[in-house]
Design goal:
- By secondary structure, the chain is α+β, with helices and mostly antiparallel strands.
- It folds into three domains: about 60 residues, OB fold (Dihydrolipoamide Acetyltransferase, E2P), CATH 2.40.50; about 70 residues, 5' to 3' exonuclease, C-terminal subdomain (DNA polymerase, domain 1, Orthogonal Bundle); about 60 residues.
- It contains ten helices and five strands; from the N terminus they run βββαββααααααααα.
- It has a five-stranded antiparallel β-sheet with strand order 3-2-1-4-5.
- Helix 8 crosses helix 9 and helix 8 packs across helix 10.
- The longest helix is centred in the C-terminal third of the chain and has 14 residues.
- It is elongated, with a radius of gyration of 19 Å.
- The protein starts with a strand and ends with a helix.
- About 5% of the residues have low confidence.
Length: about 200
């Protein structure tokens, strides 16, 4: 119904923002991580998702298209509703969540209130293959793909270290991957699944 709303932030506490546009105050539910980035009286562009449920009508908001996309992905998982998805986005930054998904890190996802191991496992199972590796590559500080195997190994190792893994563990995992026949992004994705 609404793709986004541009307006002045009138209230921003816990999980609710009031965004005023043309003398109308829109009550928007948002993640705490997003709300922390907002300032009262600033004009902001909030991407929205309009949700109609049996218990009410809700407007969910996001400060980036990436966060909105993750919310939609999370709510596509059976047993994950908008409140649980928002709880996950309140506990984890989008890049942190993506890293947890591709590396099968159940413990990180269960940091979100209301998310148990069973739900976290289901989220990983259904979403790990849908994560865009280009987003994770941004975290690796401008890692560039090259044609030579030694450079692919070096860049993959550097990417894993920049993602927070120690060098010895990254080297051990990369030894077991067929670097010759994979693109750099596939090498990193395979490594993250093995760690």
């Amino acid at each position: 119904m609404f793709s986004y709303i541009i307006g002045e932030v009138k209230h921003a506490k816990e999980d609710v923002v009031i965004l005023e546009n043309n003398n109308i105050g829109y009550k928007i539910l948002m993640s705490r991580k997003s709300i922390e980035k907002l300032n009262i009286n600033d004009t902001e562009k909030i991407y929205t998702e309009f949700v109609v449920r049996e218990d009410g009508i809700y407007l969910y908001g996001f400060i980036s298209k990436d966060e909105l996309k993750l919310f939609l992905s999370l709510t596509s998982v059976s047993s994950v509703g908008p409140k649980v998805a928002l709880s996950i986005l309140s506990a984890l930054e989008p890049l942190e969540l993506k890293k947890a998904l591709v590396s099968n890190d159940i413990n990180t996802i269960t940091k979100a209130p209301g998310v148990g191991r069973k739900t976290a496992s289901r989220i990983i199972l259904e979403l790990s293959d849908k994560i865009d590796m280009d987003d994770l590559m941004d975290l690796a500080d401008n890692v560039s793909d090259t044609k030579t195997d030694s450079n692919k190994y070096r860049f993959a190792l550097e990417a894993l270290i920049n993602l927070g893994y120690n060098k010895a563990m990254a080297e051990k995992v990369l030894k077991d991957i067929d670097i010759d026949n994979l693109e750099l992004s596939d090498i990193i994705k395979t490594a993250l699944k093995k760690i």
